Amino acid sequence: MTLVGRRPTAALQDLLERKSAGRRYLKAMVHAVDRSGSAVPTSFIVSATGTVTRPSRLGSGLVDIDLDHGIHEPLPEGAREIWNLWHVGRPTSPNLWSGYARAMRDEWCRAAVIYHPYAQPERPPGRTYELDGCHITDVEGFYCALGEAINEPGGYFGWHHQALLECLRGEWGAAPPFRRRWHHSNVARHHLIPGYDRPSYDIRGWGPRVTLEDILADLTDAGITVDLR
């Protein structure tokens, strides 16, 4: 990985001037910067040693720093396209995620949670949300569609089991209990079936698939009424 156009602080300059490689080790969180210049913390972490420092072409006093490692979880190929959407502004059209494969749908949810407005007012219990199930061919698609059903295009409402349970406890846009109409549920019923799978977000290996029945059980336990259509 190369850090491009970095303005070295006194602490970073001291680190880079150390002769021992072990003393040039750094650990940092990667932030995303949107069009307004606002920095948003991500879940990406860099742990590496600075190997080469040189003047940057981006401006006087700036440096480029070569690191001997990249981020802990490299982005899937093509992820830049998704992050660029949030860079210029939150997606405004529904189902833009539908043409992506599983790993990219997972990346879509990662961007959505990072840019989720935490100051967003909680909607009161008792509402009904419409879920478009046309493209729920995998569990990642379910989370993309659920985020849009609750919080509009580009919205977030979980991206794996534990995250969904956290959202169902409130403060993520919809307070349970509420009702959800799941349109075209036959798509999920056909695809979210028992078997074994390797989730795109889980590098540990294979495990039981998340089925439609698993999802319905979680929602029912949280007081969510689901109307399959």
UniProtKB/TrEMBL annotation:
InterPro entries in UniProt: Barstar, Barstar-like_sf
Pfam entry (one): Barstar
Record domain Barstar (barnase inhibitor): where: 128-191
Superkingdom classification of source: Bacteria
Family: Belongs to the barstar family.
Name assigned to this protein: Barstar (barnase inhibitor) domain-containing protein
Protein's organism: Actinomadura harenae
